[in-house]
Design a protein that fits this description.
The chain is mainly beta. The protein has three helices and eleven strands. It is globular and about 35 Å long. The N and C termini lie far apart (37 Å).
């Protein structure tokens, strides 16, 4: 299936790479189908990926694995909320955080409060609000990102 994107051009996407968010995502409830895109020029999968809408070419959100910005990330959520995406286990659970990357990169932040939860087996996802009181909507990750780059030998 060929999809058109504003930022990545035309992409040939296999059906098994489509993730359905039955309720959409916050602020974009009408858009239900997404895929995850990342640049594979290097050997390692990059830290930042993109949650790309299949229905709106210009809707692509930068996302990151929460454990890269906060290794102790442990969202508290009621099981009932996750029922719609199927049975979750360690093998099929994918958690992503949305990023905000302003013009002042030192203010780059991740939303710890509203992660995307994806079941890789059913390819269904949802965005939830976690119960953890100490998780911020704008958790500054600039220093963490710089440390990651340094560890990878990048400047």
């Amino acid at each position: 299936m060929l999809i058109k994107t504003k930022y990545f051009g035309d992409i040939d996407l296999k059906e098994d790479k489509i993730i359905t968010f039955d309720q959409g995502i916050m602020g974009f409830e009408e858009h239900k189908r997404y895929t995850i895109l990342f640049d594979m020029e290097g050997e390692d999968r990059p830290s930042i990926s993109w949650l790309q809408s299949l229905e709106e070419q210009g809707l692509a959100l930068p996302v990151i694995n929460p454990f890269q910005v906060r290794p102790d990330y442990n969202p508290i959520v009621e099981d009932e909320i996750l029922k719609s995406i199927g049975k979750i286990n360690e093998q099929n659970l994918v958690i992503l955080l949305s990023l905000t990357v302003p013009s002042d990169i030192t203010k780059m932040s991740a939303n710890l409060k509203a992660p995307f939860i994806i079941n890789s087996e059913t390819r269904k996802g949802c965005q939830i609000i976690v119960e953890n009181q100490d998780y911020e909507v704008k958790y500054n990750i600039y220093n963490t990102a710089m440390k990651l780059k340094e560890e990878k030998g990048e400047k």
